[in-house]
Specification:
By secondary structure, the protein is of the alpha+beta class. It is built from five helices and five strands; from the N terminus they run ααααββββαβ.
Amino acid sequence: MRKNSQQIREMLNAHGIKVTPQRIAVYAALEELGHASAEQITAKVHDTFPTVTVGTIYNVLECFSTKGVISKLNTSDNKMYFDVNIHDHHHLLCEETGEILDFGDRELTELVRAYYASHRMAGTDGFEVTDIRVQVIGNFRHNRSNHNRTTKIPTE
């Protein structure tokens, strides 16, 4: 469920971020677009604020990411996407369509965590796992042309 402007204001304040109309627009655009690149977000924000620069958008996204409001997703084709879902989850990436879907699976996360703990490699002493993000890359067997790029699989 999307947040209204007041909820976005409250969320930004709670994270210690100064509230501006442009920051609200960036968050709202990302929420509407789902997993989106800075360029996609810029195009959406320009609908409301045509004078906002790409640099401003990047700065806002970096601020949001640093403060834990959004997360970054670097795909296998080396493109950076942003995600408003900050809860533990993984991603399914369709190579044919570019579609990115959220995939929540605590069992997979714990399996990877346990595997790492029991299979330490030389030179990794002192390395502490803080997050586990799995990207499963593949293609759908059926035509999903009527699906939005950011259709989401329910997360736990």
